[in-house]
Amino acid sequence: MSQAEVRVGAPKGRGAASDVRLPPRGRDQPLQTVSRRTTVRGTLFGNELLTTFRRWRTLALLGVLAAVPILIGIAIKIETGDGSSGVGGGPGGGGGAGPAFISQITNNGLFLVFTALAATLPFFLPMAIGVIAGDAIAGEASAGTLRYLLVAPAGRTRLLLTKYATTLTFCLVGTLVVALSALTVGALLFPLGDLMTISGTSISFTEGLGRALLIALVVAASLIGVAALGLFISTLTSSGIAAMATTVGLLITVQILDQIPQLHALQPYFFSHYWLSFADLMREPVYWDDLVKNLGIQAVYAAVFGSAAWARFTTKDITA
């Protein structure tokens, strides 16, 4: 380290800006820029949101999520061009598996919302979350901006919580993008009105909209475990690409393992096992058991990997 470099110290255990190297005097412009961004308390989260949602990568991910319901709706409309239901039979279905919704889309476009969420939740939504979460810390380190963020009075814990809150916001936004896109396409291509639940009872369109919103919120909450896992992986490396690839790879691996019958004893502990339980919100009465298990599993993953991310990040020697 040259004489022009300074090592910023902080009391051990407080997780502030310990072991962060300031650049030589000739390269202090980035530090000034980031300092202005983080010195005003309460603006860090807003700036992180703006930074995240202005990136072309984020916009591309949201565009892909919005396109999935459009493709599903057009495909079903072409398949049933005469307006008849040719996709499947009856409202029945079990285990909250979701495919039962697809047979009802031609009768009521609102079912496209449920079908699109069921189609995107196993892969598209968690993949997008994995990209955002995996890049949260590692991306800053790879770009050389992480140490600048930490020398400002943000603190490591506050920065980590801000990154996690930003990722959770993307979970909600991504889910709502899928739901709103599906609702728009469903209204344009198919009739709307009272709808039939999985249990065979009829509910009003207004109540159906309320359940669709509740389902979207449950789907967003189903991703908080993935967000915490991706954030933890992001603290282990200084390569944003490596963190994103590892997170997405783990998502795919876990879902493959969740389909192997020989692992049935372990599968209830996988974060993805109860993802499609949101379909139970379309039962009358609502079947809550799997929904509660899903939210409980997500809370456990968030606590475990969130704590691991904090422990790693607050003791990590930041050199980039």
Q: Care to describe what's here?
A:
This protein has 320 residues and is mainly α. The chain contains eleven helices and four strands; from the N terminus they run ββαααααααββαααα. A two-stranded antiparallel sheet has the order 1-2. A hairpin with a 5-residue loop joins strand 3 and strand 4. Helix 3 packs across helix 4, helix 3 (56-79) packs parallel to helix 7 and helix 7 (156-189) crosses helix 9 (224-234). The longest helix has 34 residues, at 156-189. The relative contact order is 0.14. Mean pLDDT is 80; it is low at 1-42 and 83-99.
What is the alpha-carbon Rg in Å? 23 Å
Q: What is the structural class?
A: mainly alpha
Beta-strand proportion: under 5%
Query: From N to C, what is the helix and strand string?
Result: EEHHHHHHHEEHHHH
Oligomer: single chain
Strand order of the largest sheet: 1-2
Q: What coarse outline follows from CA principal-axis ratios?
A: globular
Q: Estimate the helix proportion, in percent.
A: 55-70%
Low-confidence stretches: 1-42, 83-99
* First and last CA, distance: 14 Å
Overall mean pLDDT stands at 80
Number of helices: 11
Largest sheet: 2 strands, antiparallel
Count of beta strands: 4
